[in-house]
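Retry 2 of 3 after timeout on previous attempt. Resubmitting structure tokens to design endpoint.
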């Protein structure tokens, strides 16, 4: 698993300390560290990059850490936020944002290492939960079917039936595309047309008003009101590939 960690602090020396602590810590993941020196820079970073852990300083100019944390929470429910501060005054606000920890600076490596081991344990719990729940379960005519998200190409709605195209076969069941959309992982699936939901991990290209998916011959139409969302997802994936 790849682990993206961000440090956001307007004090470059403190960013360096936390970065050194991370590099000294035994982390059994492929880890990439990102640095941001303002709240605004942090918010720009998360637009195109999923961050698993953020060490976020509170006392920053213009957009402070509390306000930055609130904006991060609007779009990133699972990101673990650790607030860093020289004061105890912000504890209640940090708690309201559902931060994982609130640390008074300076922090020693010994304390940091203990904290990181707790965070890594928490991440394993989150990933174990996701592995269980990263499946779409439905009742087909031959019985109950469970498809892992990564197997699914797209869903197509036709009247009162939904058709599922996947790498392990094609299925259909009674239902609506709206109810399917509500149940899916929003980070992985995208409504691109009133009649289609695609797996964004399969997104290959967009040409005119059609989508090409990996390993899928059929071209998927794009509805006018969904085109901006589709292009944003494609741009994000191209950015991640070129990093």
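Retry 2 succeeded. Sequence:
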């Amino acid at each position: 698993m790849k682990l993206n960690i961000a440090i956001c602090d307007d004090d470059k020396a403190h960013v360096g300390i936390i970065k050194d602590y991370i590099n000294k810590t035994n982390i059994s993941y492929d880890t990439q560290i990102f640095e941001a020196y303002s709240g605004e820079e942090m918010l720009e970073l998360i637009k195109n990059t999923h961050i698993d852990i953020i060490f976020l300083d509170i006392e920053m100019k213009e957009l402070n850490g509390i306000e930055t944390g609130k904006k991060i929470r609007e779009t990133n429910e699972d990101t673990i936020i650790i607030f860093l501060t020289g004061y105890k005054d912000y504890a209640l606000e940090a708690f309201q944002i559902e931060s994982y920890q609130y640390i008074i600076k300076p922090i020693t490596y010994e304390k940091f290492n203990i904290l990181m081991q707790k965070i890594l344990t928490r991440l394993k719990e989150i990933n174990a939960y996701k592995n269980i729940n990263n499946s779409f379960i439905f009742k087909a005519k031959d019985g109950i079917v469970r498809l892992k998200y990564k197997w699914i190409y797209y869903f197509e709605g036709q009247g009162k039936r939904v058709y599922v195209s996947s790498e392990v076969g094609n299925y259909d069941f009674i239902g609506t595309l709206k109810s399917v959309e509500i149940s899916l992982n929003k980070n992985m699936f995208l409504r691109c047309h009133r009649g289609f939901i695609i797996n964004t991990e399969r997104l290959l290209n967009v040409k005119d008003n059609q989508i090409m998916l990996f390993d899928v011959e059929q071209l998927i139409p794009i509805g006018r009101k969904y085109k901006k969302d589709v292009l944003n997802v494609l741009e994000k994936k191209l950015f991640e590939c070129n990093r």
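Attempt log closed. The chain has two domains: 2-132, 135-241.
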